[in-house]
Amino acid sequence: MIGTYLKKIAPRTLYGRAAAILLLPMLTLQLAVAVVFVQRHFEDVTVQMTTNLLLEIAMVLDELENSSVADVAATTARSLQIELREWNGSVSGGEFVFYDISGRTVAPFLYDKLAGVIDVDLSNLNKVIIVLESTAGPIEIEFSRYRVSASNPHQLLVLMVLTGIFMTLIAFLFLRNQLRPIKRLSAASAAFGKGVNLPFAPGGAIEVRAAGQAFLDMRQRIESQIEQRTMMLSGVSHDLRTPITRLQLGLELLETEDAQGLKEDVASMRLMVDSFLNYARDITGDPVEDIDLVILAKRVAVRLDPPLLTKVLGKPRKVALREASISRALENLLLNAQRYGSKVELVIQFDVSEIRIKVHDNGHGIPADKREQAILPFVRLEPARTQSKGGGVGLGLAIAADIAKSHGGLLILSDSEELGGLSAEIVLPF
Predict the structure, then answer these.
(1) Is residue 398 located within the same domain as residue 371?
(2) Which of 251, 268, 269 lies closest to 260 in space, CA to CA?
(3) Dihedral sign of CA atoms 276, 277, 280, 282 in order
(4) Looking at the 3D structure of the chain, how many domains does it have?
């Protein structure tokens, strides 16, 4: 239970947690030192000094039993650096300033140890005035405040606080320099997730350097794997085109009834190979530019038959994207919607931290338990998506999903509330 509460109030960022790790022990140490200092210095030392002064006051009171107030004030009291006089009848009310720590110890101690005390005036930080009953009547005893409390008692506390603040500032500067390589690593990782290779050199502590170098090695391996996949798929697809073309030419010369079926099979093979080449294309090769997504979407929608109208929600603004890749993803989603539905709607929504590109249709949709499978390459869901309007090879959604991932986003399939069919939504972060 305590752990859950601490998680709720704990800082979320690494900088905040590091600052908490730095500040909490320092504040705890300063608080402990302050408590011990107040206990030992302001209480114990103050009580000891006040006890010694009480002996001198007792001597003065003994002298008053045989002499007048004026005579004792001029002799014994003066030699003890104590001012003695008859009481004028005024009282202080027992008030003292709020930061007078020693006064909170002196006043109760005098009332407790000194008999006949009428008033203890600590309103002045430089002197103490005691009003008490004596054999000579009510008298006032005045002496220096420094005789019952240490001089400049606040200096240690002020010095401790100022030193703590100074060391904290130095620690924060050092901490910021140590976290800077981590922030650069985070930025490079986030950019790579969007298909952008930011210049990055490992730096910082040994552990941070190791993490940075591991990231560079991982990035290099991923780029190598993408390149190898692209070359392999492109090579296979290119090698298949030549025999398919020869088969098409040969079938065109045949005029039998069986030739028509073979022609359809060859045409399907050619479509598959073309889609294969399109899927194998390196989607991260396009340059990232600030583009107007609304204009791009309308340009893609106009190329379709029939052309589609685009609905825009929020405040449009330019976004750093790969124009060719996003155009291909939009076209795939729109063609897929047109293939399986008679009505299609394109919606572009600009939120605070993300952009949502939604394509709705009024087709049969895709069951919820098969949507993850639907975005896999070469997967066709015959029961859910009718083939009456022309079949595909199962790469349209896969390509759109890959393009969304290359921009740090994702492709979400759901039921369309607007048209009742499928809703294919690309979510892209800013």
Answers:
(1) yes
(2) 251
(3) negative
(4) 3
